[in-house]
TrEMBL record, chain A:
Annotated protein name in UniProt: Predicted lipid carrier protein YhbT, contains SCP2 domain
A Pfam family annotated for this UniProt entry: SCP2
Residue ranges occupied by any SCP2 domain in the UniProt entry: 66-137
Record-linked InterPro entries: SCP2_sterol-bd_dom (IPR003033), SCP2_sterol-bd_dom_sf (IPR036527)
Cross-referenced SUPFAM superfamilies: SCP-like
TrEMBL record, chain B:
Organism listed in the record: Ruegeria marina
Keywords: Hydrolase, Protease, Ubiquinone biosynthesis
Pathway where it operates: Cofactor biosynthesis; ubiquinone biosynthesis
Top-level taxon in the UniProt lineage: Bacteria
The protein's name in its UniProt record: Ubiquinone biosynthesis protein UbiU
Entry's Gene Ontology BP terms: proteolysis; ubiquinone biosynthetic process
Length: 169, 332
C-alpha cells in the first residue's frame, strides 16, 4: 500500500477534532517520560544533530489520530502529541505509517528504501531530516524496545503485537 | 582464486559495528569533513570515534580503510594532511585516495601504510593505474563502473596491483572525480567539498495529485507520479524536458542500483581481489542486509557451492537493479 493510497482512504469523521485532542491528552505524559529517558540514555545523538537541535520536526504517523512535535534540544527537549489542525509550523515534516516510522527509528528498515518506495514522505528542511536520521541510526539497541520496557510486560506485549501485525510494503 | 574480500560501508560507528558483525572483511569510513566523498550532515566519524572503531574492528579481524578521496583545493592541503596523520596514528589499515598530492604526502610521510586508489581517481586504463603504482606505491585500484568483465580481466594482466570492484549500490556512471553537475546549481563541489546534491539545497514538494517533485537549489530535477518509485535528488538521475522530448526523459542516467550478485564467480575468475558495497550514507538496516547477503554469497562461492543470494531489490534506488557495463556496454 502506498502512502498516497493510505491517505486517500481517510475521511473526516464527526467529532474527530475532539477525539484527536483527547488522544493527545492521554498519550502526552507517556511521551514526556519516553523522550526524557531516551535523551538521558543516548545523549551522544545530539552531537550529530548539530544546528538542528533547535529545529521543530513534525512526525506524522498517518493512521494515528495525532502527529508528534519533536524539538531535539537537549536544553529544552520537546516531544508532544498535537492534533493535525493545531500542529506548529515545522522546520521539517516526516510522514509514514506508524510502524514504518518505529522501524526506522530502530534501523530495522532503511530510510532511503522507504523513500524510494514512496512509503516515507519528507518535506521542509531536508538537511534537518538527514541529520535526525543519521543521529538515530548511530544509536545502538532498540529505542522501541527500551520504550516498551519502561511499561513492563504490558509494554513489551503491545510492541510485540504491533510488530507481528506489521507487513512491510 | 583471489581472496574476494568484502569491503563494506560505514557512515557511523554503529554502522561500522554492524558491518563488522555481519561479516565484513574490511570497512571503509571517513571523517566529518571535506576529506571524503560522503561529507553529509550528521554522518561520519570524529577522531575519537574512529579510534574506538579501529579497536572494535581489529579485535574481530576486520580491517578499517579511511576514505580521503576528495581533491584539496589548490594550496589548501592542510585538512587532508591532518586527516592522513590522524588516520595513521589511529592505525587504519589503508587510505583510499584520489588526489596525487594526497597520495604523495601519505607515501612520503607514512610509508608503511597501504594506499588504495579511489574510484574518484577514475583510473580505468592500465597506463593510468601503473602510474599511480609506480609513483605512489598504490597497492589496490578501485575500478570505475564502466568496464566489462573481459576488460577487467585484461587490465588485471597488465597492472602490478590488486583490483577492487563495486558489486552493489550506486551505479555511478559519470566520470568520477570529474563530475561538476552539483557545482553548477549549488556552488559546492562533489569532488572538493565531498557533497553531491547537498541536503541543505534539496527540497521535496508534494502536490495535490499525489505526485512529488524533487528540487536542487530551486531547480526541479524530477517529478514522480503518485505511484512511481523515487530516486536520489542528483542531477545525473534527473528527468528533463527538451524540445524533442517534451514528455521528460533521463538525460544522463536512471535511478537504478548496481547489483552484481550473479556475476561474483566471473569477477573472482577475472582476478578481482575485493568486492565493494556502496552506501556509507545508508542506514544500519541496509548495511546489515546487504553485508549479510554478500557474506553468505562469497562464502558459498569460495566453498564451491552455488551462491544462494537474498533478494535485495527493496534496498535499491528506484527499486530497480542492473549489472550495468559489467554485463555489456549495451546495458542501457
Amino acid at each position: 500500500m502506498t502512502l498516497n493510497a493510505t491517505v486517500s482512504q481517510k475521511s473526516p469523521l464527526p467529532g474527530r477534532g475532539i477525539a484527536e485532542r483527547l488522544a493527545c491528552a492521554v498519550v502526552q505524559p507517556v511521551l514526556s517520560r519516553v523522550v526524557r529517558r531516551i535523551a538521558s540514555r543516548h545523549s551522544s545523538l545530539f552531537a550529530r544533530l548539530g544546528p538542528h537541535q533547535s529545529t521543530d520536526f513534525l512526525i506524522d504517523p498517518i493512521e494515528l489520530p495525532f502527529a508528534l512535535h519533536l524539538r531535539p534540544d537537549p536544553q529544552d527537549l520537546v516531544l508532544r502529541a498535537v492534533p493535525r489542525d493545531a500542529a506548529p509550523r515545522a522546520g521539517a515534516t516526516i510522514r509514514g505509517r506508524f510502524m514504518l516510522l518505529l522501524e526506522l527509528i530502530d534501523s530495522e528498515e532503511d530510510g532511503d528504501a522507504a523513500f524510494f518506495s514512496r512509503d516515507l514522505e519528507v518535506s521542509g528542511d531536508t538537511e534537518a531530516v538527514v541529520r535526525l536520521r543519521n543521529a538515530l541510526d548511530d544509536v545502538d539497541g532498540s529505542i522501541a524496545e527500551e520504550t516498551a520496557a519502561m511499561f513492563g510486560r504490558p509494554g513489551r506485549a503491545i510492541l510485540s503485537r504491533l510488530r507481528r501485525s506489521y507487513i512491510p510494503s | 582464486m583471489s581472496l574476494a574480500e568484502l569491503i563494506c560501508p560505514a557512515g557511523t560507528p554503529a554502522a561500522l559495528r554492524t558491518a563488522v558483525d555481519a561479516g565484513a572483511d574490511a570497512v571503509y569510513c571517513g571523517f566529518q569533513d571535506a576529506t571524503n566523498a560522503r561529507n553529509f550532515p550528521g554522518l561520519n566519524f570524529t577522531p575519537a570515534e574512529l579510534a574506538e572503531a579501529v579497536a572494535y574492528a581489529h579485535a574481530r579481524g576486520t580491517k578499517v580503510l579511511l576514505a580521503l578521496n576528495t581533491y584539496p583545493p589548490a594550496g589548501k592541503v592542510d585538512l587532508w594532511r591532518q586527516a592522513a596523520d590522524t588516520g595513521a596514528r589511529l592505525g587504519v589499515d589503508a587510505f583510499i585516495v584520489a588526489d596525487m598530492g594526497v597520495a604523495d604526502y601519505i607515501a612520503r610521510t607514512h610509508p608503511g601504510t597501504r594506499l588504495h586508489l579511489s574510484v574518484q581517481a577514475a583510473a580505468s586504463s592500465p597506463e593510468a593505474i601503473r602510474y599511480y603504482c609506480a609513483h605512489f606505491g598504490v597497492k589496490r585500484v578501485v575500478l570505475p563502473r564502466i568496464l566489462t568483465i573481459p576488460e577487467i580481466r585484461q587490465i588485471r594482466k597488465e597492472i602490478p596491483c590488486e583490483i577492487e570492484t563495486f558489486i552493489f549500490g550506486n551505479h555511478g556512471l559519470m566520470v568520477e572525480g570529474r563530475c561538476s553537475l552539483t557545482n553548477y546549481l549549488t556552488g559546492q563541489s562533489t569532488n572538493m567539498d565531498g557533497v553531491c546534491s547537498p541536503a541543505s539545497d534539496v527540497e521535496y514538494k508534494r502536490h495535490e495529485d499525489g505526485s512529488m517533485s524533487s528540487q536542487l537549489a530551486g531547480f526541479t530535477i524530477d517529478c514522480f507520479g503518485a505511484d512511481e518509485k523515487a530516486g536520489y535528488p542528483t542531477i545525473c538521475k534527473g528527468r528533463y524536458t527538451a524540445p524533442h522530448r517534451p514528455e521528460g526523459y533521463y538525460a544522463f542516467e536512471e535511478p537504478i542500483s548496481l547489483n552484481l550478485s550473479k556475476l561474483l564467480p566471473e569477477l573472482i575468475d577475472a582476478g578481482v581481489h575485493a568486492f565493494k558495497i556502496e552506501g556509507r550514507q545508508r542506514s544500519k538496516s541496509y548495511v546489515r542486509g546487504v553485508v549479510t547477503a554478500f557474506r553468505k554469497a562469497v562464502d558459498d562461492i569460495r566453498a564451491g557451492r552455488p551462491a544462494d543470494m537474498a533478494d535485495l531489490v527493496a534496498l535499491t534506488e528506484g527499486q530497480k537493479q542492473t549489472q550495468g557495463a559489467f554485463e555489456t556496454k549495451k546495458w542501457r
